[in-house]
Amino acid sequence: MACAAVGVPGLFRGSVGAICTQAALLRLTPSALRHLTLSSIMKSKRKTDHLERTADVVRREVVSAAKVCGTAYESPSVKRLRLLVADKDFSFKAGQWVDFFIPGVSVVGGFSICSSPRLLEQERMIDLAVKYTNHPPALWIHNQCTLDSEVAVRVGGEFFFDPQPADTSRNLVLIAGGVGINPLLSILRHSADLHRAQADKGSGYAMGTVKLFYSAKNTSELLFKKNILDLVNEFPEKIACSLHVTKQTTQISAELKPYITEGRITEKEIRDHISKETLFYICGPPPMTDFFSKQLENSHVPKEHICFEKWW
């Protein structure tokens, strides 16, 4: 699967109101969508291809046209896209990814959605953040994608947090490495939306606490720093974060310093959060994901309370 990330913080280019109106979206016809997806699937031959790797993973049938209505860099190597998906049949659960179909590009991308389901419900928008690699979909996003580019998307994935109002209240521990932050940011944002619904209406799912552990090489590669800290500040009793850097060479800013630990996320830090009410979500490089999922199992956390997604 693929992801995104690194960059110079900046606002999305283009006005959402002006550029991302549903009336302005040129919808791909069903036959064009069908040709795009079938030709992409038939041409996918590589063993490392997203469609092959996820062939057994549940995905929705609906393929929806989408239009790029904003771009920004989260770091020097990670580009964020905002897509308008006008199709009312398109929906997703926090943590899921999309098959990403590009006209003229035979290889299909696989990118986690980093926005919340609420943004889609309210504005028909989703956000992706894609790291620069030589993989054709990532190359297209970094080198050719522009405002108004048209693509198609289909939701898939079994890594998600989608509690129902009557479900038992749970705490979450989110463990992210590098661009593995993408699906976990969607879950974090969804958790914040659930907290807001409780505060505003006193109804809906009763969220417990959320603790994010997030590791990257240095602070410039800690994606979505401001978004994460804004949520921590908005819900100081409910949301907390521990940001780790493993190869920091420059001075850490005063704003970030209270949240930064130099060195990897440790087994003890995670173990301190184990409880019967806690669910663990892990996304990062395979060795990291394997390590923490195994350590949690060894600490007698039930397997059904450990969810993970590996990024290649």
From TrEMBL:
The UniProt entry, under InterPro entries, shows:
FAD-bd_FR_type, FNR_nucleotide-bd, Oxidoreductase_NAD-binding, OxRdtase_FAD/NAD-bd, Riboflavin_synthase-like_b-brl
User: Which CDD domains does its entry note?
Assistant: FNR_like
List the Gene Ontology MF annotations in alphabetical order.
Answer: oxidoreductase activity
| UniProt entry keywords in alphabetical sequence | NAD, Oxidoreductase
Quick check: keyword Magnesium in the entry?
Answer: no
- Residues spanning the membrane: none
Q: Which residues form the FAD-binding FR-type domain?
A: 50-164
Protein name per the record: Oxidoreductase NAD-binding domain-containing protein 1
Which species is the source of this protein?
Answer: Equus caballus (Horse)
